[in-house]
Amino acid sequence: MRSPAPAALGLLLLLLPPPPAEAAKKATPCKRCRELVDKFNQGMVDTAKKNFGGGNTAWEEKSLSKYESSEVRLLEITEGLCGSSDFECHSLLEEHEGHLEAWWLRLKKDFPDLFEWFCVKTLKVCCSPGTYGPDCLACQGGSQRPCSGNGHCSGDGSRQGDGSCQCHLGYQGATCSDCTDGYFSSLRNETHSVCTACDGSCKTCTGPSNKDCGQCAEGWAQEDGACVECDSTCVGCTGKGPGHCKECVPGYTKESGQCADIDECARPEKACTRQNENCYNTPGSFVCVCPEGFEDTEDACVQTQAPGGEVAEGDPTRQPSREDL
Fold this sequence. Notes:
This protein is α+β, with helices and mostly antiparallel strands. It contains 7 helices and 20 strands. Helix 3 packs across helix 5 (71-79) and helix 3 runs antiparallel to helix 7 (114-122). It is elongated, with a radius of gyration of 38 Å. Mean pLDDT is 85; it is low at 20-24 and 314-325.
């Protein structure tokens, strides 16, 4: 069986349904409704200072009612709501144009918030801010201040979600009113909870300085009532400096009560095991290097240049001498 031609294959790919990731990007009914209302409100702003545009505005307003609440203005607003290729917007507008007209001509004064009247109360595709789910229940922490103002309520303002809180950095708990490790409560009352970052030396704290630590962060130790930074040679410490290490980092060992560098190159057992290889000690480690005139290979340092600058025997770059011939 022959494989399809590139052009035919490209056409086939275009006809396939979009992958799940693209399908997931489709706007929810609430989002589409909110976008339509936002465009309508913008249309009201854009037409706020206009009039009928005729030669006798006073007569027109007396005979046709004021432009501000006229069908002419409504038509100008609705004509600019949807882009030419925005099928979903056109479909929503066509389906509910009667509702928008009723609100504009008769209900606007009693229900000035178009989003609340149209999307929440009439179409029932959204919820009021601070509420969620099919029945528009109050979010955790209450609808006036969901999640204590320190997080996002799942489904807030929509008919979706479960009302649980996703807390901002530094906050935790069902209503995001508690502080996580690394933060302390700097303000708390019946309506507000504010968590502020601890000093970098603290794992837990009751205030902003290194003297307010409940526990020191990793790499720090309690000394004279404050958390001080451990020496770089320490794994845990009881105070400042290499003499207060609990344990030493790899490459260091306790000597005379403090962590000192191990000279791996001075040990009886060779640290660098390849033939002709030199060992150089470094803080906490060592490096193995081929000397000058030697080539680095996997198993050994191979001499490429004899002392005095002559090419070494066995070197493929060496030219044969009369003795070799």
